[in-house]
Design a protein that fits this description.
The complex is a heterodimer of chains A (337) and B (297).
Chain A lengths: L5 E3 L21 E10 L2 E11 L3 E5 L6 H8 L7 E6 L2 E2 L4 H7 E4 L11 H11 L4 H14 L15 H13 L5 E5 L7 H16 L4 E6 L2 H7 L2 E6 L2 E7 L6 E9 L3 H10 L4 E2 L12 E3 L4 H14 L3 E8 L2 H8 L6
Parallel strand pairs in A: 4-9, 4-10, 7-8, 8-9
Antiparallel strand pairs in A: 2-3, 2-5, 5-6, 10-11, 12-14, 12-15, 13-14
Helix pairs in contact in A: 3-4, 3-5, 4-5, 8-9
Chain B lengths: L1 E7 L2 E5 L3 E3 L6 H16 L6 H27 L10 H29 L3 H4 L6 H20 L1 H12 L4 H7 L1 H26 L5 H25 L3 H10 L1 H12 L5 H4 L6 H23 L4
Antiparallel strand pairs in B: 1-2
Helix pairs in contact in B: 1-3, 1-5, 2-3, 2-6, 3-5, 3-8, 3-9, 3-11, 5-8, 5-13, 6-8, 8-9, 8-11, 8-13, 9-10, 11-13
The chains are: A alpha/beta (337), B mainly alpha (297).
Amino acid sequence: MVHAQYAPARAGELHPALTPVEGHETGPIISVTNLTKRFGRHTALSNLTFDVPRACIGLLGANGAGKTTLVRALLGLTNPTSGEATVLGLNTRTNGIEIRKRVGYMPESDCLPPGATAADFVAHMGEMSGLPAQAARQRAADVLYQVGLREERYRLIKGFSTGMKQRVKLAQSLVHDPALVFLDEPTAGMDPQGRDDMLDLIQRMYRMLGIAVVVSSHILEDIERVCDHVVIIDEGRLVIDQPLTGMGTPQGDLLVRIDGNPDDFIAQMAARGITVRRPSDDDLQTSDELIVASNAPEVYDAVRDVTAELGVGLRSLRMKGRSLEDLYLGNVGGGNG
Amino acid sequence: MAEIDIQGRYGEIYDRGYQHYIGKRLGRRHAIWALITYSMKRAMGIKKSWTAKVIPFILYLAVVGTVVVVIGIEAFLKSAGTVAMSYPDYFTFIYLIEGAFVATIAPEMLCGDRRENVLALYFSRAISRLDYVLSKLSATAILTMTMSVVPVVFLWLFRQLLADRPLHALTANIGDLGRVVLIGTLIALLLGCGGLVISSFTGRKSIATAIIFIGYAVLEGFVNALIEAVSSERAKDVLALLSPIRLIGELSEKLFGVYDPVASGHGGFPAAVYVAAALGFILLGIVIMVWRYVPED
């Protein structure tokens, strides 16, 4: 029996919590204009401008790049030094509390009271988000079940594994049925199986439940797997803001990395009628890879033969596809991601 | 709605899948009340192990037991018209019990949130940082007032009911009710604020508890030593205001008209000055709490 205050979530449907923000049903879920945040002399965010659609969004950057500061600014927890931001059509400077009613937040750090049961604590967070007590208890039980905690939800959190704690953190961010969830390093400290499960849950949140997600992470693989759109920031500056659609599709070129003089290799290949060039700024990969403009079977033979003739080592040979790693390294060129 | 394949004679289990919530969403006031009630439950050890409940409930028992004993003695000695414990004596006794109570509950109110980083979750909810501070102050004040106001109101009520003409006594002594409520409230707020201020500086409950006990003892000893050292009566009056137990004791004696300048060693101020001093300390405590929690960056 479905309770009157619940509606089944269906893939592709607009989240009911979005509707109060009139006129925002189809606009960008986050809009940032010239956003700058300074702490004394340190500039944490520098003149960021971007719009992101209703999607699963990856916020990527090395540790200290400004991701957490940006999330805090978007939650209305810290006022920008200059510039503006809107979340779900609400201004972060003036509507912080209204924004926080509609969004969920899962911090990176350990933030659960060990002496409480998961069910009690998640229900309490539901009440803190404005749900009546009975609805909060019911939602807590439902959401904990959905994130994979069954009977464990009645146990004290201090006995939970890292993966279970991450699930409780995710559940508390979903308990009030937000329209948008900020997840800060959601797979931090999890084992491979737990990480896989968490990424599945995140993917399901947007694709099946219609809850927009911002995943803040420095793990490229996680972002590439679950997100539709990526925002990359580096030292507080916006580097990339683009969809991830088509990322990873092979583009027909080969990427070759050799030990030895690249010019000799390019000349020898040209003598065989095969064009090889050094990467330009638009190619978005590391500069020590050469681009061979074909992936025909005879090209593989030519690469093998030329390296043998030159007496140089062939370190790698792979199909060119614009992976997120290419995008990241091509634009940030360092960091720990 | 997907039906799981578990059916039996007693019923069926359904996995409803994720459901969007379309029911009533209450406002910030509800969130603040939720934080107050949750904080009170945690401080009293409710839904925690029995060890967390022991100290608060023993202290409650001490207060309630005292009131019951006082009422019992007065009922027994009714014909002699004896008062087993005067209100000023009662408040001096309550002050000590309440001090221990605050040393137990104030660290529970704040230290866990800071140490376990739950603050990050609270501040991501529909409340402001000021709301958080006021919620914690309110939760502490409600609990401390149940100890310093509620029992003494019952004591006052039973005293009137034990009189020869209870209805007349109720109206004739209504002023006493106002006085006990005022003093009980000031004790609750003064000690509660002090305990919270100390607890706001550390994430460790045991350290906060120790500092609260030591702080009260050191302050008391220091003020007493200064009062002994100075000769000016006016200086003694002012110094007495710095000691919460003297402040409350002298205020209750003034209000109930039993203040003895000879026994106290100084003349004291009018009652309004003691009330103003207590309110000043409470306000100072709130300002320090706001300073500790409200700045955003």
